[in-house]
Amino acid sequence: HTLHSLVTVLGTWALIQAQPRSCHTLALAWTFSYLLFFRALSLLGLPTPTPFTNAVQLLLTLKLVSLASDVQDLHLAQRKEMASGFSKTPALGLLPEVPSLMETLSYSYCYVGIMTGAPGPCC
């Protein structure tokens, strides 16, 4: 059951790295498509996931879409900065950089955030 959440996290991280400009839309499509597959496992004759695995998958879906949105906001802010021709202080509430794989895994599996709804890395 751990592989389901890991596939979701790694897939979202890959989308963020490959397409930071449109990663929010891609992550939304990816995570909800995988969630649909995950929820249909019993219809496909595969073992039904446990309720805890279901809860983790639902929360990860929301967290990863939020993370992708934060990365897209960072990318848009960087583009505006380049277009204006000068560097200003970073805007509050933005990620300082695109998260690495380790940062994405840490954010995704952080106990405080996964089960209590802590805000994303931008806050």
From TrEMBL:
Alphabetic keyword roster: Signal
Tell me the route in metabolism or biology where this protein functions: Lipid metabolism
Q: Name one GO molecular function term.
A: lysophospholipid acyltransferase activity
As given in the record, the signal peptide range reads 1-18
Q: Which residues form a coiled coil?
A: none
Q: Which GO terms describe its biological process?
A: lipid modification; phosphatidylinositol biosynthetic process
Can you supply one Gene Ontology CC term for this chain's record?
mitochondria-associated endoplasmic reticulum membrane contact site
Protein family (similarity comment) = Belongs to the membrane-bound acyltransferase family.
Write down what this protein is called: Membrane bound O-acyltransferase domain containing 7
Q: What is the lineage of its organism?
A: Eukaryota, Metazoa, Chordata, Craniata, Vertebrata
